[in-house]
Amino acid sequence: MSKINPSSNTNIPIKSPYVEIHNGDLVFIENEIEYNNKSALGRAYPLKIRDLPNKDKPREKLLDSGVKSLSLAELLSVVLMTGTKKEDVLSMSSRVIKEYGKSIFANPTLDLQKISVELDLPLTKVCQIIACGELGKRLFDKNVNGLKTIRTADDVYEYTRDMHNLSKEHLRGLYLDTHNKVIHDEVISIGTINSSIVHAREVFRPAIEYGAAALILVHNHPSGVSTPSESDKVITEQIIKAGKVLGISLLDHVVVARDSFASIAVDYN
Question: Is residue 9 part of a domain?
């Protein structure tokens, strides 16, 4: 932005104050001067929510015009509610979106401490942002187009994309109704998965609680190699046997990795 100091002899129309976005930040322009058919911005400074007209404040805007009228930064500012002594919440939200984009909401493996340092944000604010993204993701995953139907191991791989890049092994159960629709989805254990720590009662407890007709086990290999281990195969056999006693079928045990997956039921039987 630049300033000009025209002579007092020049007829200079000055426009009334307004708001613009510069480099991703909301800025209040005190005046814009037209001089020799060119525009130059007068004094400008980062805008705080209290400086905005009521109709442009995020919460008021949401109430008056609906949630879809808000930008991503405005939505985030509503969630965060307050800024810090150094930074207004709207400026903070704009900066987060500018530096991280939508990835900050979509990636559950981001290092929260690292984000806090890189963005110079209190850890509580980072937790709010990550929790907001995870909440939206879970609600979307479970409700879009009704219940998710799982027909193949490919469907399992797509459904569990959030597991593909996890740094620790997660064992997850997908509990299905008689039409193979997911009625419950639960992480059963976290950490190295072997037959000595995976108990049938932990696997089948949710199945009984939610009235599942069948289930699919899924776990990830952080190594990036989806080939099942001997322990994976042993666990699968144990769960199949327990399921026969309970009348609840284990349809598959799928091992997922970053770029591949393996179906123990299809590929190793």
Answer: no
Q: For residue 3, is it within any domain?
A: no
Rg (CA), the chain: 27
Q: Is residue 148 part of a domain?
A: no
Residue with tokens 């629709």: 181
Q: Which residues contact 242 (CB under 8 A, 6 or more apart)?
A: 200, 203, 204
231 forms beta bridges with none
pLDDT tens, 190-220?
Answer: 887 776 578 899 999 999 999 999 999 999 9
Work out the mean pLDDT of the chain and round it to a whole number: 80
Tell whether 206 and 126 lie within a shared domain: no
Separation of alpha carbons 127 and 115, rounded Å: 10
pTM of the model: 0.51
